[in-house]
Amino acid sequence: MGNEVQIIIKRILKDIQVELSDEFDQNFEREAFFSEAWARRKSPTRPDGHILVDTGNLRRSIQSRTTDNSITFFTTEPYAEIHNDGGEIVVTAKMKKYFWHKYYEATGSFGRKKDGSRRNDKRTVQLSTEAEFWKFMALKKAGTKIRIPRRRFLGTSPEVEKAVRDIIEENLEGYIENAIDFEVK
Which of 62, 44, 41, 43 is nearest to 52 (CA)? Predict the structure, then answer.
């Protein structure tokens, strides 16, 4: 009986691992933590892009590990915690340099007419808005704070608890159905 229990627990943990890995990945498609929508982006740098998906590294970084009787989901990306939990980050001189770099990168990409003035096409207008954003960020004083909204993609929730409960019930029902043998004579 003890060996059968361990087999059932392993099966349950594997099913939870598969199901929740898919659900946590789907949070990036939903742009929500299950039914809790993520705060919309205020910066104009990627107006049509998915929230929290730039390179895809954060999304791909979600991993899990199991022991004989538990499962843990985690990510090793250093910026994951601030996005998952929200909070404030302090502007540093290094960050200001980066913001200026992004500003000059955006302004250098403006479409120009033959006389050197800026075009008023959609792309140039977008880049102009982006450049203004980076300039605004670069002009922040070192030591000021930037608020990062909470955009959970990993953690517990009523949906996670229900999925775990359903997986456990399905596995136990299957075990019980297979364990009881009825003979009619």
Answer: 41
Strand-pairing partners, residue 11, are none
Q: Residue 59: which of 49, 46, 69 has the closest Cα?
A: 49
CA distance 85 to 162: 22
Instruction: Dump pLDDT digits (tens) for 2-33.
Output: 688 888 899 999 999 999 999 999 999 899 99
43 CB-near residues (< 8 Å, 6+ apart): 133
Answer for the pair 104, 153: CB distance below 8 angstroms, yes or no: no
**pTM of the prediction?**
0.72
Q: Report the Cα–Cα distance between both ends of the chain, in Å, rounded.
A: 27
Give the helix/strand (H/E) hosting 147.
Answer: strand 145-148
pLDDT number for residue 98: 94
CA dist., res. 123 & res. 146, Å (int): 28
The answer to whether the CB of 20 falls within 8 A of the CB of 166 is no
CA dihedral 32, 33, 39, 41 (to 10 degrees): -60
